[in-house]
Fold each of these.
Amino acid sequence: MIELKTQFPIGLNVNWIDATLAPEDDFLKDWLLDLTSLTARLKSHCDVFRVDVVGQHIECCQAHEANEAIKEGEDVLVREVVLFCDDVPHVFARSLLPLTSLTGNERKLANLGEQPLGQVLFNNPKLHREILQLAELEPTQRVCELALMLNCTVEHNLWGRRSLFTIDNKPLMVAEIFLPAAKAYQNWHCTGQHSRKLVDSINTI
């Protein structure tokens, strides 16, 4: 991860859409719209789960990541990680934690190290998910460059989601992008968008 740390922050300046516009593929949609802990679900699909921290620092919230709860220009702690299942990179996650939210019991969220944020959040009975949005990322997006650095072949658009959570009215944003080797795409190669585009290109030859 040394090379990846030099790339921090990766960022996610993408076009987020409403969850009702999820892809047609039922298997991928199930992963995208799953409201339970993604960390727990990934752990159930592998023997060894780990978190590699790409980087973490404080910056001002940018316009494309701001919302009603996290304002543009507000100081936020940005944390970017890659989630691995059996040494295979599955998810890139970018979290925004406003400094005003890192008070009381939530101060510990600033010092997680390689502990998964999702595991900590979903163990808190006060956690509430406010919104869920989706995004489709073309191979030219910067996060796809991250996938290439992780020796993943990007043969189709990637999908991700972001959620606004609150704990005792303290907001935080978590975005998760499924990398090419993610189990969320296991049916995508056969029935998904990439295959349809490939067929279309063959028919035009």
Amino acid sequence: MNRKKFLFLIMLIPTMVYAQVDYSVIQVNEESGNNFTQITTDNDYVCMPQVKRTPKGVNWLSNRILDISIDGKQLAYLSFRNNTTNIFIKDIGKQGASVQRTNRQAVLDFSYSPDGKYICFSETNGKLNQIFQTSSTSGYVCRQITGSNKDYSPIYSNNMKNIFFARLENNGTSIWSYDINSNFLSSYTKGMNPYPSKDENIILCTRINADGRGEIWRVNYQTGIEECIVSDPNRSFTTPSLSPDNRWVLFVGSSVLMNGKQQYFNTDLFACHVDGTHLVQLTYHAADDLSPVWSKDGQSIYFVSQRGSATGTANVWKMDFAY
């Protein structure tokens, strides 16, 4: 897997339909017993993270482009409209229109603050990615957090003292943090897709191994202990996030579908216990399932997928998590 392509695939706005894939079904036999609910509509113009397939595997944009409000009632997602990519917010229980939350040109990814008052996001600006903070409810005023670098995947620490993010440099990608009060920047360890644990000293992240495959790591940046908790010689994994009860890790992984002797490389959702045991594959659809996020009660998962669309149009879907 090409490392730079794996990190920086751009957003795919017009969804590409592969002739050999039937996206129109909502779920497949391996997913029986689970409920899938479509949350957005085609008129929400949900961004689909780009996926690139080769004869040997699949690469995808691993950034998080969904999040749920602190009360669990609103979905924030990236939408492409008027030749710009911005954050929109939609009431999950209603069928009404979405509300635009940012007024930028090319938002790449984002996350809510733990208190629900702010959203931090990265935006592409030429060859750079800059991180900003804005209100989650009103106005378009933004506070710039970083600049003149390739920064992305911002996420708040649970105590809201820091914003963790990934930075691409000449020697690879590493996890950094920005101290919100002092404006101090710190570099911790190699990796991307940082996700802080409730233990303020521990983060989950993705690392690319020597074979070009993504692995899920747990890093204690106080003690220096680093543990690989999910790895497979035939799969890549990215985008870890912890369940609200801190028992499960949710992430994206590669998979292979077979049509006779023909292979089709795909992306699906997986989960495991926080120690890496009890690995389960959650989705099996030929559509690309990406950017998963937990519901606030931990009983559901929201994700982006082209499933249920004969034209391969991306929408946000909700599925049960009954483990």
Amino acid sequence: MRKNLLIIIMLFLGALCAEAQHYDRGYEAVPSSPFVKKGAWVAGGTLRYSQHLNDSHNILIISDVNSKGYSISANPKVLYMVKDNMGVGLKFSYDRSMLDLASAGLSISDISMSAKDCYQINHKFSAHAIYRAYIPFADIKRFALFADLMLGGSFKQGKAFNAGGEYVLGTYEQSYALELAVNPGVVVFLTNNLAMELNVGIFGASYSWKNQVRNQVSTGNTDLTSAGFMVNLLSIGVGLSYYFL
């Protein structure tokens, strides 16, 4: 009994000491001036383009690949600082990709398959509202952390067909999505007004649904709901922004 009472007293005193002690981790330092002032405008985004051409190319178990294609992505955004270090704005995105596969073969042990005359093209439009908060480091004006809260949706159209068999098989689809995301990052000023931004997704929630028509005869649909906390390395984005201070 005495031993249990002594343990309880020690735990109680330890809790009091921990509550009374103050830890200074440097978060309470208030910058003398904001990182981005109220009334400033921020415009920027990313642009990406890639193209490929395969002529009898071999990739591990895939052989004799003859294909061509491209992908393009444009993501402009604009922000207005409604308060010091806090802004709201809009982000738009356009993505388009095409793949024209003339022929390809797959061989695994005694199993062999081939494909030819396959074609696919799709494009997607997206729009998101953004709330951004900057987290400066004391009086350092060269770089700071930020966090974007984005809410919006997207619309995607695509078609694909396979003419390699006896009949031409084609599929047309439309998909829609509602999305919520949290993307933290870091901004580094290269000049007084031009900055480079890097962000990565850590949380996302979405609801999407898709309508499909196959050979202009049969129809189908599907929907998907997802949410989760995770660092998505595939969503790392690097872009440039211009600050109208």
Amino acid sequence: MFVVLFAFILIFSAVPFTAAAEGYELYLGGFPAGFVLNTTSVEVVGISEVMTDSGLASPGRECGLKTGDIIKSINGTDVNGSSDVNKWLYEEGVELKLTILRGEEEYNFTVKPVKDVTTGKVRLGILIKDSLSGVGTVTYIDKTAGKFASLGHPVTDTSNNVIGINGGCIYGCVIYDVKKGVRGTPGELKGAIESNNIIGKASVNTPCGVFGEISADYDTSNLVKIEKGDINDVNIGKAQIYSTINANTIECYDISIVKVDKNNKDNRNFVIKIEDKDLISVTGGIVQGMSGSPIVQNGKLIGAVTHVFVNDPTRGFGISVENMMNAY
């Protein structure tokens, strides 16, 4: 999902922003980012063959491993990265005991690595990964604390569990295409990562989004300073979201706040409806990659877009900014 450096060109409608309190530097996001996160788990993403003296072999397949398995431990030692797997691959034929998480169940397998005659290296015949990447939206930058907030929801695995991370980076991102959402099928923003444009370092993946430290030299001069809104002051009715659906151009789009639920346990504090015809014509409404787009009402930041209704892409959920700020 991911080169050329673009300046952030902000295009805002005449919404009366409230100046942030003196000494408190909160800046409105709405710009896309490419996320490359180091996970604390190692996933089997493929099964491969190894050329041995006796022909092709795949110890991983033969012992019962499958794509999607999470390697929890080897010989009783926790596995938190691909290096924790590789350190055991020093001699062929050495029996390794693997504990695997498959869905919600744990399994134990015994595997003997073999030597690849083409490289001389010992292998298991599996492909693994310990990182993930994707495109999302930055919600705000707290320059006083040197932090950024993004997504508004966690990055999860196929079982909807929050994935633990061990650092990572977020980069500038150029949106180059949009897959329009339709009823029953969510749309998607497609972006290219600007690998020479580091926005910050990811620290945590929480139920309220991905947070981290903003780069010390990150330029906020083109961003709008904004005040945090209070969920108790949010009204049913008109509001705006700020998002990027083309290149690096942040634009303002009209929405309605349909429902407010301050104490929702799943951080679904708002139900929103996209009203902007231009946005609907391009995206169909809310699409993947727009998660984190800030929601503004009466010139104050009140939250971020998090989810789309699959059967109505013009509607979705939002999280309150208080919940995001309390998470990190």
